[in-house]
Specification:
2 domains, Glutaredoxin, five-stranded mixed beta sheet, five-stranded antiparallel beta sheet, alpha+beta, 10 helices, single chain, 10 strands, 324 residues
């Protein structure tokens, strides 16, 4: 789903007035509105809430606004409602919390004091079976959503594979997730599929593939990718015939698509995107930024024990043609 640009919304200065209706129960549908517009008085009324948020965000009549159903929220005494604004092919969703008397509207993130503040992300990203290095069960998990054709991803990969690995190899677990930007890069998806074909045969050999692709990124093309992949993996114990068959048939495409879906659900919209125990790092984090967050998480987890790599096991995914 594409997000509406704040600048685009800000440029739409007119808004469509909505009439106020009768007070509703939290889960009821709105009643018919009076024809004469009146000021909003009750946020539990969908038309009143729409009128209010249109003014709040300068959403004019060109923007379609849909107020969802009111439901009980994690905050006692507050109802939760999702508002969707759409303009042409773009849309944006915002969550609001409304008091039971309809007099107060809150927009923000709800935190539960006895749980990890990044629980929604931790529950969204499932790294089971993904390429990984570092210690299983480590207190800190670094998940990177990456694109093999992205130059910024190559720089971040070097940081993760050298500085992070050298300093936190026994204290952190790093997971690689595919997020090829197919609209910008012509061989990124093929490289992701090939990487997962290597992973299916040998999780250890994947990192050879990973490093070689990023190191040779500028010489790779859509035409030579398969040949270069076979060249990179020569002598690594990989069965070349099975690898080529897997790449040609795109057997691992579903794995890549699942990674893309998880990334989008977690808010990934650019590469690389790095999460440290569910905390999204802005932009392309430098080593000093990563180190500071990892150090803090190591200390924090000594007290809370509410994040990290808690699987304690390795899961091997068997694809057709790769059975032992």
């Amino acid at each position: 789903m594409r997000r509406l640009s704040p600048l685009l919304f800000a440029s739409i200065l007119a808004f469509a007035p909505a009439a106020r209706g009768q007070e509703l129960s939290p889960l009821d549908e709105p009643q018919a509105k009076a024809s004469k517009p009146v000021p909003p008085t009750n946020a539990r009324d969908k038309a009143d809430l729409e009128f209010y948020v249109r003014h709040l965000f300068v959403w004019g009549p060109q923007v379609a606004v849909a107020v969802g159903e009111y439901k009980e929220s994690a905050i006692p005494g507050m109802l939760e409602v999702e508002v969707t604004a759409s303009f042409r092919q773009s849309s944006q969703k915002k969550t609001f919390y409304v008091s039971q008397d309809g007099q107060h509207v809150v927009q923000g993130t709800v935190y539960k004091i006895d749980d990890n503040p990044f629980r929604p992300v931790l529950d969204t990203i499932d790294n089971t079976g993904a390429p990984a290095f570092g210690t299983e069960g480590a207190a800190v998990v670094v998940t990177v959503f990456s694109d093999f054709q992205c130059p910024y991803c190559a720089r971040e990969a070097k940081v993760l594979r050298t500085q992070l690995k050298d300093e936190y190899g026994g204290k952190a677990r790093v997971y690689f997730r595919d997020f090829p930007l197919t609209q910008k890069h012509d061989w990124a998806l093929a490289a992701a599929v090939a990487g997962q074909c290597v992973q299916a045969q040998s999780p250890e050999a994947f990192w050879t593939y990973h490093d070689r692709v990023f190191e040779n990124q500028r010489t790779l093309t859509a035409k030579n990718l398969v040949d270069k992949t076979l060249e990179f993996m020569a002598g690594s114990g990989i069965d070349s015939a099975k690898l080529k068959s897997c790449i040609d048939s795109r057997e691992t495409l579903k794995v890549v698509e699942m990674s893309l879906a998880e990334g989008r659900a977690a808010g990934v919209n650019s590469t690389p995107t790095v999460f440290v125990n569910g905390r999204k790092m802005p932009g392309t984090p430098q080593w000093t930024q990563l180190k500071a967050v990892i150090d803090y998480e190591l200390e924090y987890q000594q007290v809370t024990h509410n994040s990290g790599d808690d699987c304690g096991c390795a899961l091997n995914i068997t694809l057709p043609g790769f059975e032992n």
